[in-house]
Structure formats: structure tokens, C-alpha cells
């Protein structure tokens, strides 16, 4: 049912993924209950376990295919500008510029945070001494071989 709704564009991909997980979970519960009731040497139990592995494998394939299909459709949807008017295209361009500026601002904030984290790391490692005004300043040169600059402290 979920697959039919997705194909008809009335369902969600996430619903199909959840259904696949539920099928695998129900199968696992069936196997667990059967292990309790069946004899360990039962042929039917062995067949049930084999079928359970197949169900899990197929459910994983459905999830992978669903995610792949979803990504392909999203890529197609985001890159198709052929049906847009000049005004709508300009509006999309402006909205994208706003998103870019927001992301750049966030990126700059994270870079500042990274710098502060590195200063704190150096202070804790003894590479920097905290000044009275709160600013970090270089400490006296460490003795050879004691402290090295951590690899994460290098600029990207």
C-alpha cells in the first residue's frame, strides 16, 4: 500500500521506509517467539530463520532504493528551472542569496568559535598564557619536544 501511494505521489518516502523497518521488526519478533516454542533442532525453525534473513535483506534493499530514488527526485526538482517565468526565477535567486548570506554568517560565527576553542586548547596545553584583560598571549617558548601544536589547530 505504501509503495503504491509513493508511486501515485500521494504517499511519503518516509512512510515506505518506516513500513520496511516494521516488516523487518515483525519478522524478528516472529522468529524470537518461534525459537521459544520450537525445538532447537527443528527444520522448520531453520527455514524460518533463513526466510527472516531474506526478509531483512529485502527490507534493507527497499530502504536503500527508496532513499536513492528520493535523492534523484529531489535533485531533479531543485535543478529544473525551465518552467519558471523571469519574475519567479528572480524571486528564487533572491531567496537563495538570502540563504547563502545566512549560511555565510553562521559559518563565520563557527570560525570565530573554533578560534576561541583553539585559544582555550592552547591555554590548557600551556602554549598560551591568559593575560589579565582576558586576551591570550604567547607563552614563553616551551622546551623542545614537550609540547607540539595539535593537528586540529592548523587553519583549514
Q: Would you mind describing this structure in some detail?
A:
The protein is mainly alpha-helical and 156 residues long. The chain folds into two domains: 79 residues, I/LWEQ domain (Up-down Bundle), CATH 1.20.1410; 71 residues, no CATH class. The protein contains four helices and two strands; from the N terminus they run ααααββ. Strands 1-2 form a two-stranded antiparallel sheet. The longest helix has 40 residues.
List the topology elements:
Layout (H helix, E strand, L loop, with lengths): L1 H6 L5 H25 L5 H37 L6 H40 L2 E3 L5 E3 L18
Antiparallel strand pairs: 1-2
Helix pairs in contact: 2-3
GO cellular component, one term: cortical actin cytoskeleton
Protein name: HIP1R protein
InterPro entries: I/LWEQ_dom_sf, ILWEQ_dom, Sla2_fam
Amino acid at each position: 500500500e505504501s509503495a503504491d501511494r509513493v508511486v501515485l505521489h500521494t504517499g511519503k518516502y518516509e512512510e515506505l521506509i518506516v513500513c520496511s523497518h516494521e516488516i523487518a521488526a515483525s519478522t524478528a519478533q516472529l522468529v524470537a517467539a518461534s525459537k521459544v516454542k520450537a525445538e532447537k533442532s527443528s527444520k522448520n525453525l531453520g527455514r524460518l530463520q533463513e526466510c527472516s534473513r531474506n526478509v531483512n535483506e529485502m527490507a534493507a534493499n527497499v530502504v536503500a532504493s527508496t532513499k536513492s530514488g528520493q535523492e534523484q527526485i529531489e535533485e531533479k526538482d531543485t535543478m529544473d528551472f525551465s518552467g519558471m517565468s523571469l519574475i519567479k526565477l528572480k524571486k528564487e535567486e533572491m531567496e537563495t542569496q538570502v540563504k547563502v548570506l545566512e549560511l555565510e554568517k553562521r559559518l563565520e560565527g563557527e570560525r570565530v568559535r573554533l578560534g576561541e576553542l583553539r585559544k582555550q586548547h592552547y591555554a590548557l596545553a600551556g602554549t598560551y598564557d591568559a593575560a589579565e584583560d582576558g586576551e591570550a598571549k604567547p607563552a614563553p617558548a616551551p622546551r623542545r619536544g614537550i609540547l607540539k601544536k595539535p593537528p586540529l589547530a592548523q587553519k583549514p
